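Predict the structure of TetR family transcriptional regulator.
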Amino acid sequence: MTDKPTKRPRDAEATKARILSAAKKEFAKNGLGGARVDIIANQAKANKRMIYHYFGNKEDLFQTVLEEAYVDIRTAEQKLELEHLPPREALERLVRFTWDYYLRNPEFITLVNSENLHRARHLKKSEVIEVVSRRFVNMVGGLLDRGVEQGVFRPGIDPVQLNITIAAIGYYYLTNRFTGSILFQRDLMKDEALEERLAFNIETILRLVCVSR
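Done. Here is the predicted structure for TetR family transcriptional regulator.
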């Protein structure tokens, strides 16, 4: 007679997932300094002791949330399968994805802002971030190499610099959407404004990378 499988491992994973989800919202809303573990516990339907058991202290929990956030976007980028597309089309898809991801995941931007306030002291300790970041840079580098080989892209473009530029032209627009709407006297978050911005982002990157005809 075999023993019935225990539910404890599954329950533990479900609890950890709830804690991470609640922590992501709390850290994104209030930053590391303002986030409260008791609120995270309440939202996760857990208790503080369980949080400390699974994740250590609040700093450790914040690092785990950050790692999860970066792994999520890097994993989604890998699923774009850019290597199967013509270089120009692949680059446009990457620019479009980055913009759409920021719009769908505003917590990612606020978490990154919070970590920058702390001079990336949590990411410096993370081996996970190093691995996923290297994989992404290699993917973009491979895309650029294919474009150069086919005579579509200019040679000598640094994939790290390109990634920073793609991120920046979307990141700045969204983090400054409130002040920008006042300064430029237009609603930067209206549907037509967002579509216009995406088109501008794509054109900007393609003009930067593509060989002039």
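The CA atoms of residues 22 and 43 lie 6 Å apart.
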